[in-house]
Amino acid sequence: MRILAVGAHPDDLEILCSGTLACYAAQGHQVIMAHACRGDKGHGEIPHPQVGVVRDLEAKAAAQVIGAEAMSLGFLDGEIYADEEAMIRFVDMIRVAQPDLIITHHPDDYHGDHNAVTKLVLDASFLATVPYYVTTQPAHPVAPPIYFMDTLAGIDFSPTEYVDISDTLELKKQAMVQHTSQITWLKDHHATDILDFIETIARFRGLQCGARYAEGFQSVRAWGRIPAKRLLP
Is the pTM here over 0.70, yes or no? Predict the structure, then answer.
């Protein structure tokens, strides 16, 4: 299968679903990790024009750790909206990636950029199948099933499916280690040790499903999006 995971910022996928993405990659599936925004405002010391460049390089290194491909849509942090320009870019992303399955943010996460990405993914994944919605890329033949990944700290999120990431937790943490700028930023700005955060949430989700470590997901329950078999690893 071809798996497209879409996060708002360069480290969102690493925090929220990279254990599962590593499982897919280990099984031989093609994994694309796309971040919509450059992460250009996610620091207080690196000069502003350089932050986005640094974070894009970190995302590429993180994707390499788990055997995935990195993709950036280039929006600026705090400046992504579900408008026509953004829709075209998301439709083209999906048409290029040709996914059999999409993973993205839950629509009620803590950050406006996350919520905008959710709206764009849901709408663009349908429009990408419509031949008369003309962009630079040909239409994708199917509207793929979509799974929402966990919210930050699991707040107001009740998984309907789990993935055992006991064998890939260390890869998940190593992928996050590539985001050196964010490990520092999250400690300074959010008083959060993100590596401890990742392991704690994975252990909590594991307790819910009988695994040592796990990630939780919700499937989008809509006509044409419900698979007849399990697609998560």
Answer: yes
